[in-house]
Amino acid sequence: MAPYRGKRAVNAAELLIRRSRGLRDAGTIVRHNMEVFRALLFQDNRNFIQVWSRASKSPIMYENGKIYFENYQICYGCVHSEPKILYKLPKRSKLEKFEDALLCQSPLNRTLASPSDQKPSLLALTANNWLYRFSADTGEELQRVYLSPRHKFRYLSWDVSQEIFYVKSIQNKETSVARQVFGSGVTDAVLSQGVLVVSYSNKTVKLYSFEHIVQRYMTEKLILGKRSLLGGKTVGDVPFGIPVNIHITDCPVVLFEVSCSNNSVRIGGYPWHYIYTPPHKNHKGTHHICSLKDGTTATNGIQNMNCCSLESDWIIFHPDDSGRIIHVGPTIINVLKILGELNSSCPSMVVKDFSMATHRNNIPNAQVTVTSSGRTVKRRFHQLDDDPDQETFRLVEYEDELDLLAVVVTNGEEGEGRAHIQLHDNQSGQLLRTFDLTEQWDETYRHELSIDKDTIVHVEQKKTTFCCHLYKLITAKNEEA
């Protein structure tokens, strides 16, 4: 039976029948499953209920259905109605503590050498320069690699599009070779989308092709566990580690360069554009959207919310890879799109796709002052846009499988910090459901929110304590007699 192409309701029984008969496109089943789940999510008899809370003195992390405590030493799985402990790693000494960790998923389009390589893994970088690979489900140690006796590594990052991850060291004093190649004043370097992004103290950001650097300056291709010609030792073993096999002798070609505030520049959209704030006081609070091809500012490409708030607004390219832009302020969220042709001589245009706004009382507040003579004086003052007594947008998360935007909104009208989550359709911005959070929301502390189908995880920091609150989608009991 061929799948229906038109838009109509599809029930679970019909999907099971289709699955038993088989479909040529495996992705079709997944899409229909998500459509059914999304319909269940918006039924009136279902709600997100807090089912579990835990506190810790160390940071708490959530990723891909797992909650990590005690610096990744304890892992809980969130598949069941309440989290179940999956594993506890042995206690580690100060030298062996984890500096950073990264969840690694295997590629789906090819088979790897070992069955354990095909399953999700947790990569962990230790203080003594070891890189471990553990099973994400059992905590079993699968592999260990010694990195270097010379360089101190501290950070792990993931370059998703290139299916590679990289380990970054702490910054050392610039050598004469580094200054000769990249210039003086380097403050940071990251790898993203196959591009080496270098930041400078003069607020400049430069982009270099990492593929070009590897092809031109690599002296030997290294393989873990094999002998290297550079030192005659086994790569990844103590005390040799992984030798430096890229020696840059001259400055690579600069693909792109821009001066920007906070060394922050974002690249995306179609055609390619970049978003930045010029490093001048008169541009503070503005976000400029320009063509990556020639730097031309798009029509309506300077976005400014004119916020008067403690927390500044922020802007990113939408994580759904649609090329759209999300601009989030305390009272309004704009989803923008870029209209333009790839080889057109006319500048692109930024237009609003849809907006979301808070519901506020716009009556200006009055501050009452009593003078020494007993005379009452009322003085009007401007309320902050993110005032805790008013509805305020705090966080925005994207649920890719259900194609939803989850927005955290706070409202402290009754003197208590309360928050709720609004679920909006990602294509239209339509408000579909609202769920209240049980715990109070203190905007002075850091908060993180993750939504993963039927699970919502809220991690907050209160002074020196971290708290994790987990919500599950639960069907309300029938109260009829």
Structure commentary:
With 481 residues, the chain is mainly β. Helix content is 9%, strand content 42%. The protein has helices at 12-21, 26-41, 176-182, 210-217, and strands at residues 46-56, 61-63, 66-69, 74-77, 84-88, 98-104, 121-126, 130-135, 141-146, 153-159, 164-169, 186-192, 195-200, 204-209, 254-259, 265-268, 273-276, 286-291, 297-304, 314-317, 325-328, 332-339, 349-357, 366-370, 376-380, 392-399, 404-411, 418-425, 431-436, 447-452, 455-462, 465-475. The strands form 9 sheets. The protein has a 4-stranded antiparallel sheet, with no helix packed on it. A 4-stranded antiparallel sheet has the order 2-3-4-5, with no helix packed on it. It has a 4-stranded antiparallel sheet with strand order 6-7-8-9, with no helix packed on it. A hairpin with a 5-residue loop joins strand 24 (366-370) and strand 25. Helix 1 runs antiparallel to helix 2 (26-41). The radius of gyration is 26 Å and the shape is globular.
